[in-house]
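Summary for the steering committee. One of the milestones for this cycle was to obtain a three-dimensional model of the protein with zinc ion bound, which we needed before selecting residues for the alanine scan. The sequence and ligand used are listed below.
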Amino acid sequence: MADIYVFQTGSTIVSAAVPDRSSRKSSIAYTGLFQNRKKRITVPVKCFLVEVSGHRILIDTGWSAECAVHPFRHLGFGLWFASEPVMRTEEAVVQHLKQMDLQPSDIDAILLTHLDCDHVSGLIPLKDAAGIYVTKEELDGKNLKNVRYNPNFWKGVDFSFYEMKPDEHAPFGKSCNLFNDGSVVVYFTPSHSAGSVAIEVNDGGRFALFTGDNGYNRHSWEELRLPGPVYDLKNMTKALEWVQAESKRENCAGIYAAHDPEVKQGKYKI
Ligand SMILES: [Zn+2]
């Protein structure tokens, strides 16, 4: 039996084109430029603690508590403008862990799906976790020149890289069997960002899929709605088709997307 804890770390106010690029004409509409801020939408920002086969992993870290106090200073103008955080200090992931009597050092691995601010802003207070994983591609210097990244969020963090191996069942041909026991499989998905991943947790013949931003909500994969921010449009479509196919498998115990309002805070099981 695997336990899944969904933590909500506040929300973010974004252009409607962030989860669904077809909602606006311009391809840069997701940045919110030249749009009435009153017409923006609010989407939740979640991260996930999973206990499976004796491993305790955290998938993404959501907003930092700093976003409740000094959001502008923490994010910088560009990121704040495109994705304004709304949160209370007690919603930060460190506070959720504290409520469960957990220290960062009690986490075996923090698995980052990618390095966008709403997934990594809460990382620094957790840097004592045993391992903090990201793909080589995501941390590549060329990639990080993009304004969407702010390296301050991982200053002083000692990253480990997912060890990706060829996998004919993986949507993009590569996956990482994190603990070599099949309990946590990380799939390379260069779609939303250059090195983004999706994470599958397996127990007792059933699985849960954590999409990262390979899908903002159920409509993303059910109706193949492409998000605004993408690294590769063709790959994004392929990733959504893959998530859709996974969601239809009989042994699928749930699809968990970080920004899905239907995934409520609480405890779930596989
Ligand atoms: Zn996101």
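Key point for the committee: The pocket of zinc ion is lined by residues 116, 118-119, 213, 258-259 (CB under 6 Å).
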